[in-house]
């Protein structure tokens, strides 16, 4: 039975994706921060006839990511699909390790998790990385600002930069680990908890979480994609990301800096 590890499985797109994948016969490893929500999810997965387990992770703490990864490595010798889904939107603040919140949770924690799980991500394992069309709102990453909480920077700009980082990471990972298959997915505009109250009135045409999860589930499971890696996907088709997201020097710089930042937590 294929094993699928999903971060942020307790709400929105992640929850819809795990229920779909469990219904397709995948064993779900749900990585979330709330035990109560994870226990509820386990019951929901049982109701669709699936099997699942959970591991506690707080993506706003690199130490917590290290501990969760150790637990996963203890329990499993192969993960077939890793879905780096969890995310924060325009919220203000910083992570425990004093990274700007969106960069820390959306990119750095997932970089760290993926690196630590390298021993169980083998030939043909897939890494599905959630990103967003919002990555096009920025044309680079201001590395100097990432150690400052989102106070002077607008949250939405910080979010867009973190989504650019998600694309650059998936692209660079495809190069460095050719045995893996990576897919960066834009799920569409989806009505979930990631939007602050003031954005809700603009969500008239937004997708449901189930619709938003469609390309995520497809990239996690579609056999015909098994020869493709490093691409950007939306509505089940490959798209061209921004010029910044295709900047190999920027991807390498992001990788090397991320490695440096995560090293103390190995
Ligand atoms: N919604 C959209 O229109 C849209 C568009 C483009 C891309 N995306 C991307 O899709 C992904 C999922 O977003 P969503 O819209 O489904 O958002 P959501 O409904 O707010 O769900 C976010 C998930 O991330 C988890 N999470 C947040 N901070 C965490 C932390 N510190 N540690 C562990 N888990 C944490 C949440 O956990 P709790 O359940 O405990 O809160 C929740 O399960 C994100 O990467 C987002 O950038 C969304």
CATH H-level superfamily title: NAD(P)-binding Rossmann-like Domain
Widest sheet, order of strands: 3-2-1-4-5-6-7-8
**Overall strand count:** 8
Strand content range:
5-15%
Low-confidence stretches: none
Q: What ions, cofactors and ligands are bound?
A: NADP nicotinamide-adenine-dinucleotide phosphate
Q: Look up the CATH topology.
A: Rossmann fold
Rg from C-alpha positions? 17 Å
User: What's the overall average pLDDT, rounded?
Assistant: 95
CATH level 1 name:
Alpha Beta
Q: Biggest sheet, in brief?
A: 8 strands, mixed
N- and C-termini, Cα separation: 30 Å
In total, how many domains does the architecture comprise?
A: 1
Helix content: 25-40%
Comma- or semicolon-separated keywords:
266 residues; 8 helices; globular; 39% helix; binds NADP nicotinamide-adenine-dinucleotide phosphate; eight-stranded mixed beta sheet; Rossmann fold; alpha/beta
Explain the overall architecture:
The protein is an alpha/beta fold. The protein is built from eight helices and eight strands; from the N terminus they run E-H-E-H-E-H-E-H-E-H-E-H-H-E-E-H. Helix 2 (35-47) links the parallel strand 2 (27-32) and strand 3 (51-56). The structure holds NADP nicotinamide-adenine-dinucleotide phosphate.
Short description:
This protein has helices at residues 12-23, 35-47, 62-75, 101-116, 155-176, 209-212, 214-221, 248-262, and strands spanning 3-7, 27-32, 51-56, 81-84, 126-130, 181-185, 231-234, 237-239. By secondary structure, it is α/β, with parallel strands linked by helices. Helix 3 (62-75) runs parallel beside helix 4 (101-116).
